[in-house]
């Protein structure tokens, strides 16, 4: 079968031919129908040797939708023929975090997270899952919409759910970066919370997308967005900042936007940092967190939102043969929503 693999650190993906492995034991073989291309793939490709504990060659692709083709002798046979999406965190299922529903923080992962991130992923015609519980069935959602839910939707949902207690009544949520993750965050905030949603992206077209998806205020800078908020509502602080960029600049802007008791949630991987401490430059009661991906239960909830028509990824579909060029475009910026490759 064809697969896009990372053959050397600091390089792009290359199309190669690899054997299809038939499932054994609890394994499940999924025929891949659509794969989302994530900014995190660019991060992995750009790492120097030794940064990530991954063996090369590695097939990328961690946003995978498809159909179960075959299962091993110890797996759930009723999965065969099911359409759905892969939960990419290949957790152990047995550690104390897995047992309390925090499987995205499984203690056994040791840096090799799962699908396309440490283990061969779904940028291929087939992907082998170590266990059937990593597949979430879905009804009547096309694969091009399902694929981005696996990470962009799931990560945004997990970050928002963790702060659900603060996203109530007339609270304000600020989304910084309305790309693959951020455009789904805007939809999830509108579908699951009563918060006023303020969305900021450096690109006017991304702001326009956020407005289409229900953001109450949009602007190309945090300052302009907060001015709009104050003019429209009299509110001068934000309860939850969801930073999908994660640079020094956006984290500082996000922190400065917080109301007392507000929370800075850093999702983006631009390797920014911020100093925290009592009596420093954050408001009273500050919380700073860096959520990672999402649990299987979160993915089930995300799929349910999509099944109900409440979550609709905006995608640009590219053919499987055009994946390398698509990554170049993602790196250059200017994508609206999510790029999804189909076979
Ligand atoms: P993307 O490229 O699709 O979107 C990023 C958006 O941010 C773009 O619209 C861009 O215009 C905007 N942007 C960039 N710099 C900006 C700035 N200074 N101010 C305002 N807007 C700015 O990327 P994506 O796939 O949505 O991923 C977003 C980030 O989240 C990446 O860093 C990715 O690695 C990270 N990520 C984290 C997790 C996690 O579990 N924490 C999971 C997936 C992705
Ligand atoms: Zn575990």
Automatic annotation (TrEMBL):
It is an enzyme of class 1 (oxidoreductase). It catalyses: a secondary alcohol + NAD(+) = a ketone + NADH + H(+); a primary alcohol + NAD(+) = an aldehyde + NADH + H(+). Residues 10-341 form the Enoyl reductase (ER) domain. Its cofactor is Zn(2+). SMART domains: PKS_ER. Signal peptide: none annotated. Keywords: Metal-binding, Oxidoreductase, Zinc. It comes from the Bacteria. Pfam families: ADH_N (PF08240), ADH_zinc_N (PF00107). Its EC number is 1.1.1.1. Belongs to the zinc-containing alcohol dehydrogenase family. PANTHER family: ALCOHOL DEHYDROGENASE 1-RELATED (PTHR42940), VACUOLAR PROTEIN SORTING-ASSOCIATED PROTEIN 11 (PTHR42940:SF8). This is alcohol dehydrogenase.
């Amino acid at each position: 079968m064809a697969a896009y693999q990372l053959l050397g650190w600091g390089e792009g993906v290359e199309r190669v031919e690899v054997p299809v492995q038939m499932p054994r034991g609890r394994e499940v073989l999924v025929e891949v129908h659509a794969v989302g291309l994530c900014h995190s793939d660019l991060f992995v490709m750009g790492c120097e040797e030794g940064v990530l504990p991954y063996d090369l060659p590695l097939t990328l692709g961690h946003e995978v939708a498809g159909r179960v083709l075959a299962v091993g002798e110890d797996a759930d046979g009723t999965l065969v023929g099911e359409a759905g999406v892969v939960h990419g965190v290949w957790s152990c299922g047995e550690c104390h975090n897995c047992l309390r529903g925090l499987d995205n923080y499984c203690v056994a992962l040791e840096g090799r997270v799962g699908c396309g991130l440490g283990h061969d992923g779904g940028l291929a015609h087939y992907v082998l899952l170590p266990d059937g519980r990593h597949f979430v069935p879905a009804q009547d959602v096309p694969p091009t919409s399902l694929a981005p839910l696996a990470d962009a939707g799931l990560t945004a949902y997990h970050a928002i759910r963790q702060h659900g207690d603060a996203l109530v009544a007339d609270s304000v949520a600020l989304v910084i970066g309305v790309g693959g993750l951020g455009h789904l965050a805007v939809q999830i905030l509108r579908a699951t919370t009563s918060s006023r949603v303020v969305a900021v992206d450096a690109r006017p077209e991304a702001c326009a997308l956020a407005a289409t998806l229900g953001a109450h205020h949009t602007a190309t800078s945090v300052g302009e967005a907060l001015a709009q908020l104050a003019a429209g509502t009299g509110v001068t602080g934000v309860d939850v900042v969801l930073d999908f960029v994660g640079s020094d600049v956006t984290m500082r802007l996000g922190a400065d936007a917080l109301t007392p008791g507000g929370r800075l949630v850093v999702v983006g991987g631009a390797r920014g940092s911020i100093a925290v401490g009592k009596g420093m430059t954050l408001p009273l009661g500050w919380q700073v967190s860096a959520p990672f991906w999402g649990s299987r239960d979160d993915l089930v909830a995300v799929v349910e939102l999509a099944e109900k028509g409440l979550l609709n990824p905006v995608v640009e579909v590219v053919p499987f043969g055009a994946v390398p060029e698509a990554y170049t475009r993602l790196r250059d910026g200017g994508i609206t929503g999510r790029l999804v490759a189909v076979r």
